[in-house]
Every structure is written in structure tokens, then in C-alpha cells.
């Protein structure tokens, strides 16, 4: 079986690891030169802020203190991605990055119940050791694992 591990709201989650006061608040990460929103917390999504929204359109909400916007920090995101991969490698020798926040993991030799328990443990350990919440999709192929993960 193949698992797809997707780091939830990755850029925002990375920022929250080092700025825990942002947990539970509407947070957006801006593109290079702070032009537009490229990552959103669930709380910011709930306010209707779309991906790609220009930062200038959010100035009123920012001034009112209703949202928090951060400049992107790609060095941090690369480091946190490597940390997540390191934790995943404890669960499988077959870890393959798909993007900065998604990785395929081979799960060989597990029965259904064992696989479910293994995925739950993986989910908990990634969060505990990195601070990053993840979703896990498991299927016989990579394409199906991608499809399953996007539905969860």
C-alpha cells in the first residue's frame, strides 16, 4: 500500500510551531514581496479569504486586528519539511517527497487493522516531534492515495 502524507496548511503550521500565540487565529502567509496570500489557516478560510487574494485588499482586516499576515519564510518551510520526512523515515524506508508538504510512504506487510494503527501512530508522532498536523491517505496506488487524501 502507498500512503500520501499531507502537511495541513503547511506554511501556516510551520509559523505556528515557532509562534504558538497564532494557534486558533486567522493567519495568512504572503508570497514573495508580500504581494498575495499563498497559505491560509482554517480560520482565515472561514472568513472567506481566497488563495491569491492581494494583500492590499486585506489591509482593513489587518488594521482591525482581525487577521494576521506573515511574510513567507522558505528556509523555515524547507527545514520543517526535512523534519517531517525524518520522522516518516522511522515508519518506512520508502519515503519519497512529492512536494514540500506532501510525501509518499510505502506501507508493506500490514493487515488492515495494523495499517490503521500504524497510520494513527505516524499522525501522532509527526505532530509531537515537529508540531505539524498531517492528513494521511492510503491506497494501492499513488494516484488513488492522492485522491483519498484530498477527500479526508
How would you portray this structure in words?
- By secondary structure, the chain is of the alpha+beta class.
- The chain has two domains: 2-8 and 75-147, Alpha-Beta Plaits, CATH 3.30.70.270; 12-72, MutS, DNA mismatch repair protein, domain I (3-Layer(aba) Sandwich), CATH 3.40.1170.
- The protein has six helices and seven strands.
- The protein has helices at 10-18, 42-46, 59-63, 74-88, 112-130, 142-151; strands spanning 2-7, 27-30, 37-40, 68-71, 95-99, 102-106, 134-139.
- The strands form two sheets. The chain has a four-stranded antiparallel β-sheet. Strands 3-2-4 form a three-stranded mixed β-sheet.
- Helix 4 (74-88) runs antiparallel to helix 5.
- It is elongated and about 55 Å long.
- The two termini are 17 Å apart.
- The mean pLDDT is 94.
List the helices and strands and how they pair.
Elements: E1 2-7, H1 10-18, E2 27-30, E3 37-40, H2 42-46, H3 59-63, E4 68-71, H4 74-88, E5 95-99, E6 102-106, H5 112-130, E7 134-139, H6 142-151
Parallel strand pairs: 2-4
Antiparallel strand pairs: 1-6, 1-7, 2-3, 5-6
Amino acid at each position: 500500500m502507498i500512503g500520501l502524507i499531507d502537511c495541513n496548511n503547511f506554511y501556516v503550521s510551520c509559523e505556528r510551531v515557532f509562534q504558538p500565540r497564532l494557534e486558533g487565529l486567522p493567519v495568512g502567509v504572503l508570497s514573495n514581496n508580500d504581494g498575495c496570500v499563498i497559505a491560509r489557516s482554517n480560520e482565515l478560510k472561514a472568513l472567506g479569504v481566497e488563495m491569491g487574494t492581494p494583500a492590499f485588499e486585506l489591509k482593513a482586516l489587518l488594521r482591525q486586528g482581525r487577521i494576521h499576515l506573515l511574510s513567507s519564510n522558505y528556509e523555515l518551510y524547507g527545514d520543517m519539511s526535512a523534519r517531517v520526512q525524518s520522522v516518516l523515515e522511522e515508519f518506512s524506508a520508502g519515503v519519497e517527497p512529492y512536494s514540500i508538504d506532501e510525501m509518499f510512504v510505502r506501507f508493506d506487510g500490514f493487515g488492515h487493522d495494523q495499517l490503521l494503527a500504524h497510520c494513527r501512530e505516524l499522525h501522532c508522532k509527526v505532530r509531537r516531534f515537529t508540531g505539524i498536523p498531517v492528513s494521511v491517505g492510503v491506497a494501492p496506488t499513488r494516484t488513488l492515495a492522492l485522491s483519498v487524501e484530498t477527500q479526508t
